[in-house]
UniProtKB/TrEMBL annotation:
The name this protein goes by in its record: IRG-type G domain-containing protein
GO CC annotation terms, alphabetical: membrane
Species name: Desmophyllum pertusum
SUPFAM superfamilies xref list: P-loop containing nucleoside triphosphate hydrolases (SSF52540)
Organism superkingdom: Eukaryota
Length: 363
């Protein structure tokens, strides 16, 4: 069975602090909150750069707006955007694009005034729009952003022929969609870890079906596992017959169901399911069957992952687990069961993506 090296993403400092202050009595509340916290994360992206570089046009393009549509950002040849304006990401309202005024205009003649007026430090990451060549403003802006410990990347908007992108009909072949998936990944990479992980979970895998994006999801799901296992140990309600452990079955089922939606495994009977090869259908069906299947079967599956040796390692690594009634064995069986199951679901999701691509090419 696994050794200590296999435990990924366990960050015990916060738990330790909590236990020191509150004891273990309500530790389940602590983990429940942590596991849900990704839903509250909002990311503010500052769209900045020289005046006229195409910032507002770009925001319209990725939102699928024509420049003269109602609700579109105002576009123009001369110093058009006067104050920071917020626009939602088209598929994820947790990402806010802030259309900032251009730099180097009468209202914002120098960098210092600009940074102060647009409140540069309030954004989480930046896209710096440049025209054909890098200007002094671009360089100074980049330096300034780095000095406040934020990340940015350059976009040469007009070279990306956004107008061409916009005119293509929306479909799975839509290049705007690919452009957009690339942009989203770049944004993710520019964010601090916690925001990146939270945002990864809030992105819909179907809009950016790609093996890389699947990997990102899986990595984040792995970082939750030790928390789910801790919670299962803390809230253990169902004793497993024949073994002296108990786990929280409802919690485990919820997490598996979360994996299913996060990884985009289609429901049986849905059009996406019907498009899969027979062997992939069988695997997806088998994986999802435990969500509606018999409790005793699930219990036996989980119990198979109990291990004394691993339990000892857990207690060394996360001491509070040892002080819980059902303790380390519950943790271990939950953790390894989830680990094993996520691996299988990841493999199935890879097939789902691969087959979706093949279908696209046949179309
Ligand atoms: N050829 C071409 N022109 C573009 C493109 N994107 C924007 N423009 C034009 O460039 C001008 C400036 O565009 P905006 O999007 O208003 O630029 P901005 O960076 O928001 O400018 P400010 O709000 O003044 O900072 C407009 O006339 C746009 O029509 C592009 O991809 N190609
Ligand atoms: Mg503008």
């Amino acid at each position: 069975m696994a050794s200590i090296n296999d435990w990924t993403g366990i960050k015990t400092e916060e738990v330790k602090e909590y236990v020191e202050q509150n004891g273990v009595a309500n530790i389940d509340e602590f983990f429940k909150k942590k596991l849900k916290s990704w839903q509250d994360v909002e990311v503010n992206i500052g769209i900045t750069g020289d005046t006229g570089a195409g910032k507002s046009s770009y925001i319209n393009a990725i939102r699928g707006f024509e420049d003269d549509d109602e609700g579109a950002a105002e576009v123009g040849v001369k110093e058009t955007t006067k104050k920071p304006t917020c626009y939602d990401h088209p598929t994820n309202p947790k990402i806010k694009f802030w259309d900032l005024p251009g730099i180097g205009t009468p209202n914002y003649p120098d960098l210092e005034t600009y940074c102060k007026e647009v409140k540069l430090e309030t954004y989480d990451a930046f896209l710096i729009f440049t025209s054909n060549r890098f200007t002094a403003n671009d360089q100074q802006l980049a330096k300034k952003i780095r000095s406040i410990d934020k990340r940015f990347f350059f976009i040469r908007a007009k070279l990306m022929t956004m107008f061409a992108l916009r005119s293509v009909k929306r479909s799975n072949h839509d290049p705007a969609k690919w452009e957009f998936a690339k942009l989203t990944q770049a944004i993710l990479d520019a964010l601090p870890t916690y925001q990146r992980e939270s945002l990864t979970l809030s992105l819909d895998i179907l809009t950016s079906l790609s093996p890389q994006f699947l990997q990102r999801k899986v990595q984040v799901l792995k970082t939750r596992m030790w928390m789910v296992a801790s919670l299962s140990a803390a809230a253990a309600v169902v004793p497993i017959p024949g073994v002296s452990i108990a786990v929280d079955l409802g919690l485990i089922m919820n997490e598996i169901s979360f994996y299913k939606s996060q990884l985009g495994l289609p429901d049986e009977g849905s059009p996406r399911f019907a498009m899969l090869s027979v062997s992939t259908q069988v695997e997806v069906k088998a994986l999802c069957s435990i969500l509606a299947g018999s409790v005793s079967k699930l219990v036996m599956l989980i119990a198979a992952y109990a291990s004394e040796q691993a339990a000892e390692e857990v207690i060394r690594l996360i001491p509070f687990v040892g002080s819980l009634v059902s303790g380390a064995m519950s943790f271990v069986s939950t953790f390894f069961f989830l680990k094993h199951y996520l691996k299988r679901m990841e493999k199935a999701a890879e097939l789902v993506i691969k087959e979706a691509f093949q279908n696209l090419q046949i179309d």
